[in-house]
Predict the 3D structure of the following.
Amino acid sequence: MRTTIRVSAVLAALLSLAGSTARAQSANITATATVFQAMTVTGARTLDFGNVFPGVAKAVGVAAATSGRFDLTGQNSAAVNLSFTLPANLTSGANNLPIGTWTGCTNTTNTATGCTAFTPSASATASAFSGTGSLFVFVGGTVTPAANQAAGTYNGTVTLTAAYF
Amino acid sequence: MRRCVCFLVFALVTAARPLAGQSQVTGLRDLDFGAVIRGVQTTVAPTDPIRSGRFYVRHQLNRQVRVAFTLPTRLSRVGGGGNLPISFSTTDAVAQGTAATSSPVTFNPNTAITFTLVTSADFYINLGGRVSPAANQATGDYSGTVTLTCTFF
């Protein structure tokens, strides 16, 4: 009799353990963000090839007084990606003047001296604002007039898109 | 008689062993809003493969798991000096089993939900959200803690 009671007590305890399966666990992750001040991008100077002649290619380098320039302001020392939408031609009415061989450079001061060279394209180029939140982007290129290029004033648009990363 | 009792006790202990090694929840990836601009609300979708938060949950097939988030209402500026409001919509969480036949389940991370594990014993939970910096929000890094609590049945 004593043996039977002991077994029953043990069975009752074990069955109550077997029925208790609800169990809680927790895990954490972190939510993060970095707040920056808003960025401004200004087209500051037109890329100007001046007078060009049929059949004679003409280049304007980034250090030239007539190179294109964008002025940016943003978060001090923040990294920024630069990408461009570039025309294949300058146009004058129905006439096209091919443009290409783009050149670029960036600097944290308003001078091409000592700037960092890059090739403008639709792909992102990494750069960074100065410690006071400034960045200057200089753009050059080459126009290639045909031998029978029609006379006229040709124009096109270069677009710079900048984004923090 | 004594030998018979010992055998019976041993068998019951084996069957009632807790599932400690089989049930788990693990944080895999932070919810990262990256660079946000003052005055501009920024959203991360739960389907974002890089920025969304991510947890891994494992239990047993045909068992149930109740999941409940503890979500922050603001992120704190590292070093002090500001709070960045954060919020979560009713579609900012997605659960996805690991089986090829599993379909994603979008749910509200603001309320608890119980899943019955039918196709796979383990699954992932992705979390999105949005931050709303003020126009004069102090610049800098902000962070907060997201907790996922799983109750295994």
Observations:
- Confidence is low (pLDDT under 50) at residues 1-18 of chain B.
- The domain at 23-152 of chain B is CATH 2.60.40 (Immunoglobulin-like).
- Chain B touches chain A through 58 residues (CB under 8 Å).
- The longest strand of chain B covers residues 140-152.
